[in-house]
Design brief:
about 300 residues, alpha/beta, six-stranded parallel sheet, two-stranded antiparallel ribbon, 12 helices, 8 strands, about 15% strand
Length: about 300
Amino acid sequence: MESVSQQLQKIMASRHEETKRLRQEVLNDPEISHFLQYHQAELTPEIIDRGMSKLYEFYHEKQLATNNQTTVAPGYSPQLTIRNQQIDVTYVPTEKLKAQQAARELEKRVTLRNMPKFIRQADFDHFYTDDAHQTASRQEAFNAALRFVSSYQPGQFQQGLYLYGSFGVGKTYLLGAIANALAQQGVESTLLHFPSFAVSMKAAIRDNATGELLDQVKQAPILMIDDIGADAMSAWVRDDILGVILEYRMQQELSTFFTSNFSMKQLEEEHLAIDNQGNEEPLKAKRIMERIRFLSMETPMMGDNLRNGN
């Protein structure tokens, strides 16, 4: 029968062999081996011995990442370095994490208010320019959008686009493509669905928050007002919401875009001139339209309804 001392010696010997095996496994790792060879002039056997825990940390974290297991710093890759004559491990963002961070930064530059989710993925490459869907006006709107993005300079006024046409021709998608392209250039945009925004403004009255909400919208570097004219407006929405936004943006010369099912003439005569109570106020409508014409260039978009898969 073995004594306790003999049993302990076996355990210690076993652990020693395991430590030696693991040490050799770590030192044989291609990246670690390359690191030690590259820095051999700076490293002594004593420094390597003291740094074995860091070498093992690097090796272990790399193994976890290779096996898709949780690492000590998810999204970061371990890198060996020498600091104060000591081997150390630092963690740097992976390419995947950097791409995710860049995507989040871009997303923060595009503020959506009651807009469809597809806006986040909208881009010029996926706009319908193929022969089956293309029309002359859709191509011209596309070209106008490209011209705006390529020539826009923050601080310099440039007319936006007033995109009008029937349902589903790609007006809103094109706005999203413009906003996302501008985000790539570091430019912030706000896109809002105007009928929904009008409802939000009415709801904000009870919280005394209309001023704050209005300021956020009217001061946006680039403002894109989607679906103007979709619903009948009250005089308050027309004059104290839309009118205030447009007046501010005209005075400050801030680029503004619109989409509508109506031409500018139709919007003025058939929509803005008559409020939701049936009151006719053509002069107030004309005042609104003067600002829209100053801020944007009327751009028709005609073609098939793409939502029907035609």
